[in-house]
Write the structure tokens for this entry.
Amino acid sequence: MKLRLLVPVALVASLTVAGLAGCQTATSAPAPAGSQVSAVLPVDSNPIVNTSTAPGLTIVSAAAEDNVDPVTKAAIDDRLQVTVKNDTTSELSTFEIYYVMTDVTTGQSEAYYQALTGFTLPAGATSTLSFDGESGPGHFPDNTFSIYRTSKNQVDFTVEVSASGVQVATATATRGSGEGDAAD
């Protein structure tokens, strides 16, 4: 009698475990540089620890509105877009970005950090980083619920980009007041 009861219980238990295993989130290898990964969330402080004083990384431009595609030069939807240049004779790697966005009217601010895993910048090269949630090289996630995306007020950005072995580069950008992203 006990054997009959154990078989159905064992069967139900094994099916339950199999079903739960199918509900778990799969993990994968790191995504290629600039490919779409999970959403970025606000952080409480700047985790970049780079004390180098060696020159070599510059931010050529930072924009949060009236953006243009770096290749076609055509107008594109607004996003945080940071163009960086390697002024050294060696490839730069281990990139990180930290930026703070502040609603000028309310004073509310949010900070974001991303390790730009896999992104490298050859000697003398310039490349544009787009924080827009699109996929592909040079595109990284953004938070669609951030102040930048939800506020109708002016939003100011301070941006820090770090690469291994060179001094942190800084810049500012502004998105003017208005309701959402107007067509460019």
About this structure: DSSP finds two helices and nine strands in the chain. The helical segments are 2-23, 147-150.
